[in-house]
Amino acid sequence: MIILGIDPGYAITGYGVLEHVGNKFRIIAFGDISTAKEIPFSNRLLTIYNEINKLIITHHVDAVAVEELFFNTNTKTAIKVGHGRGIALLCGALNEKKVFEYTPLQVKQAVCGYGRADKKQVQQMVKVLLNLSEVPKPDDVADALAIAICHAHSYNERFDKGI
Q: Which of 32, 51, 140, 143 is catalytic?
C-alpha cells in the first residue's frame, strides 16, 4: 500500500509518501509545500491543491492520511490551517482515494506507543522506523511521515472488505 501522509497548513504543508508492505516501509518521497505570505491566500490554497494532486497522481497513492486539526488559542490561524486541511481532503476525494484522519494523540500512540509523547520523541521514532540518517526538516515533514506511519499501523484491510 502506498500512503500519502499530510501535515496540513497554509504556509507549510508537510508530506510523506511511504510504501508499506508487511511490516516494512520504503520511503518514496517527502518534503514540504511552502507558500509565500505575499501571495493571495486563495492562490496559496491553489498551490497546495496542485502539489498534493501531483503527489497523488505521480506516486500512485492508495490512501491519503491527514492529521486532524488541533489548536489551543489562535483561532484565526486554526481557521486558515483548516482551509489547507480541507484542500488535502478534497484532493484525496477528487482522486477517488480513501482518506483517513488521525488525531495527534493517535499519531503519537502509533509511532511511539505513547499518546503523550513529545515532538522530539516522535521525530526520533520517525527517523528510526524509516532508517533515516537524520530527522526530516522542517518539523511538518517529520509530522507528515509520522501520519503515514500511523495509518500503516492503524489501517486494517478487514474494514475495507466489510469483514
A: 140
Provide the 3-class DSSP secondary structure of residue 13: strand
**140 has catalytic annotation:** yes
Listed in sequence order, the residues at least 6 apart from 73 whose beta carbon sits closer than 8 Å to its beta carbon are none
Q: Which helix (H) or strand (E) holds 34?
A: strand 24-34
Q: What is the pLDDT of residues 40-73, one digit of tens each?
A: 999 999 999 999 999 999 999 999 999 997 666 6
Integer CA distances (angstroms), 93 to 25, 41, 89, 136, in order: 25, 22, 6, 28
What does pTM read for this prediction? 0.92
Q: Report whether the peptide linkage leading into residue 138 is cis, meaning its omega lies within 30 degrees of zero.
A: yes
Instruction: State the cell numbers at 111.
Output: 509511532
Sorted by where each starts, the structural domains of the chain and their CATH numbers stand as 2-160 (3.30.420.10)
Q: Which of 7, 32, 51, 143 is catalytic?
A: 7
Instruction: Please identify which of the residues 38, 67, 143, 160 carries the catalytic annotation.
Output: 67
E strand or H helix at 101, and its extent? strand 98-102
